[in-house]
Amino acid sequence: MTGNRREALTRARRCVVKIGSALVTNGGLGLDRGAIAGWAAQIAELRRRGIEVVIVTSGAVAAGMQRLGRPQRPHALHELQAMAAIGQMGLVQVYESAFQHHGLHTAQVLLTHDDLTSRPRYLNARSTLRTLLGYGVIPVVNENDTVATEEIRFSDNDTLAALVANLVEADLLLILTDREGLYERDPRVDARAALVEEGEAGDRRLLEMAGGSGTLGRGGMRTKVLAAERAARSGAATVIVSGRMPDVLSRVLAGDRVGTHLRPAQGRLAARKQWLAGQLQVRGRLTLDAGASRVIREAGKSLLPVGVKAVEGAFGRGEIVACVDPDGREIARGLVNYGAEEARKIMGQASDRIEAILGYIDEPELIHRDNMVLL
After folding, report:
1. Residue 177 is labelled as binding a ligand
2. What's 371's DSSP letter?
3. Between the CA of residue 129 and those of 9, 190, 203, what are the distances in Å?
4. Which CATH architecture has domain 10-268?
5. Domain ranges of the chain
6. Alpha-carbon distance 358 to 7, whole Å?
């Protein structure tokens, strides 16, 4: 390690591991049960160390192609959906069987682009994944290819993995591929090309080094570099590395200099709050009492319903609202945990009354401090 640039990886407590089609299907020969069992064993060891893991797996379409003996990836939407439906059955069975050997449960989570662009569905997906992690279950995420109503693509599962890293606020996105990492030039063309060991996510020069896409999946090194840039928006680091390397997950999390490490420019909380501060449009307004205004401004506390005197606007859960003091001055803004109608019902009430008033409780705070920025 030089300059301790990978030291932060040793402190990662939540990781998203993306496994590409070429690895899952052994280069298109069929689902590689041995390889999947090996990654499951590594992930089981991470779980024993208290590290939470979400898997984003490719391979459903490729597995379906293999089952039907189709050498070429189809282009028609209905054929892609059929291949995904066929392949998904075997893919999930292999993951479930591999983790059962270690006493771990898995859960299949299928997402579409709409799930991550619709704010309510985004929040529901986040809650589901966090609950699964809380249960000690390994979520196995894939794109919901079989119900796509437009061309099947997030553009690729690298993008999906980055969005999942944002969704669960992961510390690390670990992209397993069939190459050692990002090279300065394509090593298949230039054998002297050097591996890029360190870089900063978002550096435009990295895209110039990345090549085209693979034949089995839709991603290539370019999509992985772009995924690192997306993951960095929530402060996650990315490591692009060969999934065939022995003990690769443990080695990355030990800070070993393997693969390509792309650092975020900012930490998770700083990146999130910068995004919040840059949002120009707020959907509503919460008027706080003097006590709530003071603890938010001076102590950086979360906003509880008891400190709210008035609610304005027609905002939904997860939208950005302004927080104003009794004199009408905006002191903060943040992502609200309850919609406007719910907020009106629980304002001025203690958090332990939320369930009795609404019939349910999502969070004890109206706005959590991690989702709030002071102005």
Report:
1. yes
2. G
3. 22, 42, 30
4. 3-Layer(aba) Sandwich (3.40)
5. 10-268, 279-374
6. 45
What's the rounded Cα separation, in Å, for the pair 200 and 265?
7
- The two tokens of residue 321 are 């609202």
Per-residue tokens: 325: 């003091």
In sequence order, the 6+-apart residues with CB closer than 8 A to the CB of 67 are: 86, 87, 90
Tell me: is residue 25 an annotated ligand-binding position. no
Could you say which of 1.10.10.10, 2.30.130.10, 3.40.50.1370, 1.10.630.10 is the CATH number of the domain covering 279-374? 2.30.130.10
Per-residue pLDDT tens, the chain, 375 aa: give them: 345 689 989 999 999 999 988 899 887 677 899 999 999 999 999 999 999 999 999 888 888 888 888 888 888 888 888 888 898 888 999 999 999 999 999 999 998 877 776 767 887 888 899 999 999 999 999 887 666 555 445 557 898 999 899 889 899 999 999 889 999 887 777 778 889 999 999 888 888 888 654 544 444 788 899 999 989 888 899 999 999 999 999 999 999 999 999 999 876 666 667 666 656 678 899 999 999 999 999 988 999 999 999 999 999 998 889 999 999 999 999 999 999 999 999 999 999 999 999 999 989 999 999 889 887
- How far, CA to CA in Å, does 156 sit from each of 30, 104, 181? 20, 28, 18
Residue 144 marked as a ligand binder: no
